[in-house]
Amino acid sequence: MNVPIKTPSEIEKMREAGRQAASVLEMIAPYIQEGVSTGDIDKRCHDYIVNELGSVPAPLNYHGYTHATCISLNHVVCHGFPDFSKKLKKGDILNLDITVKTPDGYHGDSSAMFIIGETIQGERLCRITQECLYKSIALVKPGVRLSELARVIQKHAEGHGYSVVRDFCGHGIGAGFHEDPQFLHYDGYAPDADIALEAGMCFTIEPMINVGGYKTKVLRDGWTAVTKDKSLSAQWEHTLLVTETGVEVLTARSDEDFSFLDN
Ligand code: MF3
Ligand code: CO
Ligand code: CO
Question: Which parts of the sequence bind a divalent metal cation 2 (predicted)?
Fold first, then answer.
């Protein structure tokens, strides 16, 4: 495994990429309402990334993916296709996953949940999943092993009766969209994959948490991953930089408060 350590000049480029990804989620948030289609949301994000940010939506043409964003509704775990005929309705929860590639060639990857109208089960799942992300981010610093982060996610999710998806993981990120290491969100590490973090590493944490079982299946379109038991699924994602003293959340948004980080 080759986990890149970013140089100071690469870190500046990662900061810019992270800010850009965050700005897309901030821009689109007020637009995500009942009656809007997931295709509309994707198109707005695409046009903003290209025309306002001067960057590229990294998913487009990535291994044959045909959209700028991934939009995963309700029981869709990840990699949902935006669709102009899919209008949001009350009680829906959706994940919008944004990855930008800047003109410098660096990636920022972040996703957030949006809730349409009211859903008690959906709100609880989204909140616990975000807590899984935050609790693991709080542990990030040099010397900590990936399995230690994974265990806090698994404990929090399973403690609330939920399950942690096994089939998709977080990842190193930089000039590559997906770099080493793979970050599993559950305690399933082979000894040589359970690396210790070092300052200068960039990676994502992006737990996918299900109300029912952890099993997923990919639909015949080759991309859309759904829960096998059709239960609700949620995900939140940030791109992180490991610093000498802790962590920097490169994709932090203005609606978030990271004052709980003690670095
Ligand atoms: N953004 C996703 C991730 O968090 C990857 C999407 S792959 C794509 O890693 F091809 F759908 F873009
Ligand atoms: Co990612
Ligand atoms: Co992503």
Answer: 109, 171, 206, 237
Q: In the CATH scheme, what is the homologous superfamily, with its name and number, of domain 8-251?
A: Creatinase/methionine aminopeptidase superfamily (3.90.230.10)
Whether residue 42 has its Cβ less than 6 Å from ligand 1: no
- pTM above the 0.90 mark? yes
Q: Is 79 annotated as a binding residue?
A: yes
Report CA-CA distances (Å) from 71 to 11, 40, 74.
28, 11, 10
Longest dimension (CA), the chain: 48
Give me ligand 2 centre to Cα 124, in Å.
23
Taking the chain (263 residues) in runs of 10, the rounded mean pLDDT of each run is 96 99 99 98 99 98 98 99 98 99 99 98 98 98 98 98 98 98 98 97 99 98 98 99 98 98 90
What pLDDT shows up at residue 262? 86
Asked if residue 104 belongs to a known ligand binding site, the reply is: no
| Omega within 30 of 0 (cis) for the link into 4 | no
Could you give the CA distance from residue 259 to residue 244 in angstroms, rounded to a whole number?
18
Q: Is the dihedral of CA 171, 59, 239, 37 positive or negative?
A: negative
Check pocket membership of 179 for ligand 1, CB cut-off 6 A. no
- Verify whether ligand 1 is closer than 6 Å to residue 237 (CB atom): yes
